[in-house]
Each structure stands twice: as C-alpha cells, then as structure tokens.
Amino acid sequence: MYTKLLTATKKRQNVTCYPFALSDNSGKSRIFISGGISDGSSSLLKPQEHIKIFPDVTFDEFIDVETITLDEWAQKYSIRKVDLLWLDLQGMELNVLKSGLEILKNVRVLYTEVSLVETYKNAPLYPEFKQWLADKGFNVQREEITGLMGNVLFVRQNFDQK
What we know:
- By secondary structure, the protein is of the alpha/beta class.
- The chain contains 6 helices and 7 strands; from the N terminus they run H-E-E-H-E-H-E-H-H-E-H-E-E.
- About 25% of the residues lie in helices and about 35% in strands.
- Strands 4-5-7-6 form a 4-stranded mixed sheet, covered by helices on one side. It has a 3-stranded mixed sheet with strand order 1-3-2.
- Strand 6 and strand 7 form a beta hairpin.
- The longest helix has 10 residues, at about 125-135.
C-alpha cells in the first residue's frame, strides 16, 4: 500500500508520505493485511466483528511494520500545528490520539472513522471516543454514521491561532 501511495502522490509537492504506521507505541507491530474484496481494512488490531459484518474481506496474512506515536511523529518532523487531522486507522484512532496529547492540543479539526461495534479486538466504540474528545475540547460538527460504522468531523472549540 505504501508503494501505491508513493506512486499516486509523486506529482503532488504538497503531500509527504511516511514509511510507518501510526500507533500507540513506537517500534515494530504486526499488521493484519486485508484481502478478498477489500485491501482497505488492514489494521494493527486483530479483526473481530469485521469478519462477520464483511465476510468477503479476508485477513489471511500479516506483516511486521515500523510504528510511531503521533507525538513522536510531530516532534520528529517539527509539526507544531495541524489544521486537519484525518484518521482512518481501523480501530486504532483513539489509541493513536492518546499517544499524541501534545500535538492534539494544536489540532483544529479532526475527521475520523468510528464504530458502534467492536470491529477490531479492543477497538474503542464511538460513545467512548466522542466523550474522550469532548474532554479534550472537541465538539461534533458532523456525523455520517450509517449502520455500524461511519465518519465524524470534530472541531476544537476556542482554538488559539498560534
């Protein structure tokens, strides 16, 4: 997938690609590779309800990948503020945000996938996710949840323009 990303963005000077997965720890982690009718469901978390909801998506392979926390990524690449943070991490979104408490203070808008069922083992459900972000100063701007999963746009209230 990373090679496909590089190819698709090579002519875009405003896109930077990084050769690792965001996680709640830095080092190496196993990623479960999705196949079948979708290669877009790979996750650092083991599939759970996902295989029941989407039986045509398989998880027959895994590989080890380099991982980095959100705060370590921001520090390593001198990222001081983020206008829009878009996370689609197949159940790892909240774990990654918890690993990025410093940079999260300087995120204006967050667009993220959420789930109402445990699609991946130990993946937090939307109500927990929503409350955690509310405690960090984010309000829901728009919910697009159909069925058991969807996407939500959160906006930080009283964002300080630094």
